[in-house]
Design goal:
single chain; alpha/beta; Spore Coat Polysaccharide Biosynthesis Protein SpsA, Chain A; Nuclear Transport Factor 2, Chain: A; 3 domains; five-stranded mixed beta sheet; about 35% helix
């Protein structure tokens, strides 16, 4: 018995850690069985109940009465569409949509329509465009009759009739036809309305799209039903996409049956009569606040809470009042943001005190990421030294350059901000004024923004009038703001690329390698790329072309390629000139190709590959952007390896060289963009063709196009080392750039130092 008791005690001691698990399992099983019995009994009661089911609630769809979502919810339930292909039908390639959001059925958030007139188009409509238009994703202006000249930057739709009801009818039809399937919300406003764009966007962001919405300032009809309301057009109103789709079939009936003087009353009556929806000023916990301006109102003195909370203000009588309203509301919004920042910083301080790090864990400034901590000396971010006149870290590599442009404006602004912050902290006891910037340092930290350290010589004045000169060091941070996605036009990799290769007599030794790489990487792979050769004859060689053609060997190689690839034709153009200006040569090529041609201006040392051609297609956008890649130039192997074997590893192919930022020989651009810029250049130089000898295609686009110039390093363009011949007949700047490219392409500083060291050792022995 004693032994049995001991065994039982040992068993219980071993079982004790598992007792909570066993109790939990048993309790869970018991509850699940009990719930199953309840569900079964309830189901039996429903099955045995006599008589028809109870009717659904008034206004509820049958599906909702049965516990299933109604038809309005179908678009928001995920569905798996099975793929099925009829084996009896021929297979067709599936055409994908251009954007993924189109395929997934996403809509843009907000569309804004501004109702204007011919009389106010150049006044109030321009004021609306300058104050709030850039805050809305899409904004159009609708008018009856248009003026002779449309203000710059405004998209205008004219319906041809100034009658208010007709204008509203045509506007609703136009919005439904062109934007009804693209946007979730439609905001209609007049040009004498000031709307807080950010507040309107915040409003639609908090509303559910699964509802018919007619939201604005609700007004009673004159002599009409007391329950019905329409939205006052002067304060703007919001329509949902579902309401617009339901309203569109009834617009013709509304135009013929409803008589009204005001367009907003007409639209409200149409929505009420045919859809049974009245205007509301509050929906889903969101309020549509408005404010009606009195005559001779001064916005700067308006301190009422109703004014500060308003989404829309009406009526705005002139442009000046619109700008004053915008300034006042911007100041109110800025004060709110600053107060919110202070509240958040206080919360961060309070919470950080409770963390293990304590108050030492608070970073400066509060709420901004801590500075980047390098893990090795190669990750250290260097500081740039500057004064009020000079910068000692220049883009061109020189040790000292004049402070100008954006850098000068940045330094002036940061000094003013530093003095302002000091006065804000120490006033009224002390007031500081800047005497001189002693030292300035700045660096860009990718984790937080631009950091500054300033040594300022200040004059401090007391309340009694005493002054003292002192030096003070201050630190400032310009934090990174909200990241924005810049919209770019759509491009594909299917565009045909037209390669243009200018050739001189000095380039003959490298043509064979270029043609071999072109054949291997484009012709063998059937890439959508063509080649045009540009033979540049010296006048002396052009006179002897009948006896000795200096480009005869190249033409023979082209003939061999055309025999090998029967479907390929490689045309060439012959030009006679002493100064091969890039712009003049491009003028000749441009006239021989269609305007939609995508050019890739190449050099004879370029090794063409499919990877770069695709990037050329993607980075070049017609009427938007041109692409000037920076190729990788290998160093002189005689200086780098000094008799040793060249590294052939694929991982080291970008090791012994540099990206040649002095070369602008390669370029990707559309012919239409070049012709537009070239026309502006011709009007500027007025037949002074000698100016073209000092310019490259890059200069034409930089000064005369207005397009985005995308200049980036391109690892897909690797060029072998060669000593380029620099034409002294070109301009001084182009010749100097060519010489610098040759010098920097010799070797790195360490390689040059080793070569000099070995040469000195050899001379000493």
């Amino acid at each position: 018995a004693v032994a049995a008791a001991m065994r039982l005690g040992a068993f219980l001691s071993a079982l004790r850690p598992a007792l909570p698990l066993l109790l939990g399992l048993s309790l869970g099983c018991s509850l699940s069985l009990l719930r199953a019995s309840w569900s079964h009994s309830a189901a039996e009661e429903r099955c045995l109940a006599a008589g028809p089911p109870a009717p659904p609630a008034r206004g509820a769809p049958p599906e909702a009465a049965e516990g299933r979502p109604g038809p309005g919810h179908e678009d928001f339930r995920p569905r798996i569409v099975p793929y099925y292909r009829d084996p009896n039908k021929p297979y067709k390639k599936v055409l994908r949509t251009r954007y993924i959001q189109t395929e997934l059925g996403f809509h843009e958030r907000l569309f804004v329509a501004v109702l204007t007139s011919k009389a106010t188009l150049n006044t109030l409509a321009v004021a609306v465009n300058k104050t709030v238009a850039h805050h809305f994703p899409r904004l159009l202006y609708f008018t009856g009759l248009r003026s002779a000249k449309v203000p710059h930057g405004m998209v205008l739709v004219a319906h041809g009739d100034e009658r208010p009801i007709w204008l509203m009818y045509e506007t609703m039809n136009y919005i439904h036809q062109h934007f009804g399937s693209d946007y979730d919300w439609f905001y209609i406003m007049q040009d004498d309305t000031y709307a807080q764009a950010e507040q309107v966007k915040a409003l639609v962001a908090h509303l559910s799209i699964n509802q018919d919405v007619y939201l604005g300032r609700a007004e009673e009809f004159i002599g009409g039903d007391e329950q019905a309301r329409y939205c006052h057009g002067g304060f703007g109103y919001l329509l949902s996409r579902s309401l617009l789709l339901k309203l569109h079939p009834h617009l013709d009936s509304c135009r013929n049956e409803i008589l009204s003087v005001r367009p907003d009353e007409w639209l409200g009556r149409c929505i009420i009569d045919f859809l049974g929806i009245t205007c509301v000023s509050q929906l889903q916990g969101q309020h549509y606040h408005t404010y009606e301006l009195a005559k001779n109102t001064e916005p700067e003195k308006e301190e009422e809470e109703e004014f500060q909370a308003a989404l829309a203000v009406h009526p705005v009588s002139d442009m000046t009042l619109m700008y004053r309203l915008h300034k006042q509301f911007s100041r109110i919004q800025l004060d709110r943001v600053y107060q919110e920042i202070q509240d958040l910083q206080m919360q961060i301080r309070n919470l950080t005190a409770l963390t293990p790090a304590g108050e030492a864990g608070v970073t400066w400034p509060v709420g901004i990421n801590a500075p980047f901590l390098p893990k090795s000396r190669f990750e250290v971010i260097s500081w740039d030294y500057f004064t009020e006149q000079h910068l000692f870290s220049c883009p061109d590599g020189s040790p000292k350059c004049e402070l100008s442009g954006a850098s000068k404006a940045d330094v002036s602004e940061i000094i003013e901000s530093a003095v302002e912050q000091l006065n804000r902290r120490y006033q009224p006891l002390l007031r500081f004024s800047k005497r001189q910037l002693l030292n300035g340092y700045r660096r860009f930290d990718p984790t937080r923004g631009m950091e500054y350290t300033l040594d300022l010589l200040l004059e401090a004045a007391t309340q009694k009038g005493h002054s003292h000169i002192l030096a003070k060091r201050v630190s400032l941070v310009r934090p990174l703001s909200k990241v924005e996605i810049i919209p770019m036009p759509y491009v594909t990799e299917a565009t045909r690329v037209q390669l243009v290769l200018p050739l001189t007599v000095q380039d003959l030794d490298f043509v064979a390698n270029f043609l071999d790489m072109f054949a291997m990487n484009t012709l063998d792979t059937h890439d959508n790329a063509l080649l045009t050769l540009l033979f540049i004859y010296h006048p002396y060689d052009a006179q002897r072309v009948g006896q000795v053609d200096v480009f005869g060997g190249v033409k023979a190689m082209v003939g061999e390629l055309e025999k090998r690839y029967a479907e390929v034709k490689i045309p060439w153009i012959s030009v006679k000139t002493e100064v091969p200006s890039q712009v003049k040569l491009m003028d000749i090529v441009s006239k021989k190709h269609p305007v939609d041609t995508l050019f890739f201006l190449a050099s004879v040392w370029t090794e063409i590959n499919m990877e770069f051609l695709n990037r050329c297609r993607m980075n070049t956008i017609s009427n938007w952007q041109v692409f000037f890649p920076v190729h990788f130039q290998e160093f002189n192997p005689a200086l780098v390896y000094r008799g040793e074997q060249t590294a052939s590893s694929n991982t080291d192919f970008l090791r012994d060289g540099h990206f040649d930022r002095h070369s602008f020989a390669e370029a990707c651009f559309y012919n239409s963009d070049y012709m537009t810029a070239r026309t502006k250049l011709a009007a500027d130089i007025l037949d002074r063709d000698e100016v073209l000898e000092s310019m490259e295609v890059f200069d034409v686009f930089l000064h005369y196009s207005g397009l985005h110039l995308f200049r980036a390093v391109e690892p897909g363009l690797v060029q072998k080392y060669t000593l380029r011949s620099c034409n002294p007949r070109l301009s001084e700047e182009l010749y100097h750039r060519c010489v610098l490219s040759n010098l920097e392409g010799l070797a790195s500083r360490s390689h040059l130092a080793m070569a000099l060291f070995e040469q000195e050792q050899a001379n000493s022995t």
